[in-house]
């Protein structure tokens, strides 16, 4: 039985409204919905289905197709993947099933969707696109870095509306340890750290990034960003840090943007508004 936030609205057209469809693949759930690309808001409600276990490419593709069919969507769509994707092919699988490595995810998803055109992109990149245009980065210029704190650390870099795809700041070495092994929110939970103790590690990661690329703004996402007021003020890096605002819709919105606007690793220009 389909799990939804509330009953799903059928696709609608409202004058010249630009619409897209995005699916966000997560470790526990696969969620999708129709997006108003003028506002970044969902049209109707999203549908969320449990991520299959094991989360093999075929099993995930079947679930993605089930989400899409709930809406009767037949046009191009975007799908996120939690790792590096180049020309539709998965190159890393740090926190997901290793059977994804080397798989042409674009072809797998399309084969379960009767050939509908699918754009596949990194999940943090999708969230970054959405936050830059419609969320915490709206009306900001310069270099914006989104970091998602969860099981690992995802990252997205956008400069004046242009995405630099597949950055992996969660895997850079900081003080002899991978950034996400030092400062992911899962590390905080595992070690039982206070926000004060954890933000010491987060600060080290932010400083390493800002010393390398000098961003103008950090946007922090992931579940722990809901409590940003408890820890963002404790950070001691120099670059301003704000919490993501789109929360659990960012991946859906960014995936829809990518599908409609042709944002891929080969063509990364986004329309900056």
UniProtKB/TrEMBL annotation:
Q: Where is this region: Disordered?
A: 1-23
SUPFAM superfamilies to which the protein is assigned, alphabetical: Actin-like ATPase domain
- CDD domains associated with the record: ASKHA_NBD_ROK_PPGK
InterPro entries for this protein? ATPase_NBD, ROK
- Segments of skewed composition (Polar residues): 1-17
Q: What NCBIfam families does this protein's entry cite?
A: PolPhglucPhase (NF045942)
Protein family: Belongs to the ROK (NagC/XylR) family.
The name on file for this protein is ROK family protein
Organism, scientific name: Mycolicibacterium hassiacum (strain DSM 44199 / CIP 105218 / JCM 12690 / 3849) (Mycobacterium hassiacum)
What lineage does the source organism belong to? Bacteria, Bacillati, Actinomycetota, Actinomycetes, Mycobacteriales
């Amino acid at each position: 039985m389909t799990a939804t936030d509330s009953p799903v609205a059928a696709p609608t057209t409202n004058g010249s409204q630009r619409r897209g469809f995005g699916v966000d693949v997560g470790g526990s759930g696969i969620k999708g919905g129709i997006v108003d690309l003028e506002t970044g808001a969902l049209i109707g409600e999203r549908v969320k289905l449990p991520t299959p276990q094991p989360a093999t490419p075929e099993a995930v593709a079947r679930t993605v197709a089930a989400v899409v069919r709930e809406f009767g969507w037949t046009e191009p769509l975007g799908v996120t993947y939690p790792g590096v994707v180049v020309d539709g092919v998965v190159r890393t699988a740090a926190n997901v099933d290793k059977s994804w490595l080397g798989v042409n995810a674009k072809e797998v998803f399309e084969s379960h969707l009767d050939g509908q055109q699918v754009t596949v992109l990194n999940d943090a990149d999708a969230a970054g696109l959405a936050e830059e245009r419609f969320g915490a980065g709206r009306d900001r210029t310069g270099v914006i870095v989104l970091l998602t704190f969860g099981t690992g650390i995802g990252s997205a870099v956008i400069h004046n509306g242009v995405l630099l795809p597949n950055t992996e700041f969660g895997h850079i070495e900081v003080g002899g340890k991978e950034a996400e092994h030092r400062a992911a929110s899962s590390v905080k939970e595992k070690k039982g750290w206070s926000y004060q103790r954890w933000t010491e590690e987060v600060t080290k990661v932010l400083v390493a990034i800002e010393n390398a690329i000098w961003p103008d703004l950090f946007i922090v996402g992931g579940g722990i960003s809901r409590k940003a007021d408890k820890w963002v003020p404790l950070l001691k890096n120099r670059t301003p840090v704000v919490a993501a605002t789109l929360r659990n819709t960012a991946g859906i919105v960014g995936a829809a943007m990518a599908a409609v606007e042709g944002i891929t690793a080969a063509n990364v220009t986004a329309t900056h508004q």
